[in-house]
Write a structure and sequence with these properties.
- The protein is of the alpha+beta class.
- It has four helices and three strands; from the N terminus they run βααββαα.
- It folds into two domains: 39 residues, YefM-like fold, CATH 3.40.1620; 39 residues, no CATH class.
- 51% of the residues lie in helices and 19% in strands.
- It is elongated.
Length: 78
């Protein structure tokens, strides 16, 4: 992931947003310290969903069933 300083972000916000809409992600730094991330909405949604408590629980239950040689229908995960 590319890094961009806050000053550079301020002066080139339109360019950065255009690049992010094309799939690029940035770590925003302030005085050399990472403070934020700018990423495409789709990536952010995937990240949020992948770490949502309900999804994590369903994934854990499915893995346990798989290890035991069983399968779990999606409707059985709710």
């Amino acid at each position: 992931m590319a890094e961009i300083g806050i000053k550079e972000l301020k002066s080139g916000a339109s360019r950065v947003i255009e690049e992010v809409s094309g799939g690029k992600s940035y770590v925003v730094t302030k005085r050399g310290k990472a403070t934020a991330v700018i990423m495409p909405v789709e990536e952010a949604e995937d990240l949020v969903l992948a770490n949502a408590e309900e999804f994590v629980t369903m994934r854990r239950r499915a893995r346990e069933a798989y290890r035991k040689g069983r399968s779990v229908p999606l409707r059985g995960l709710d």
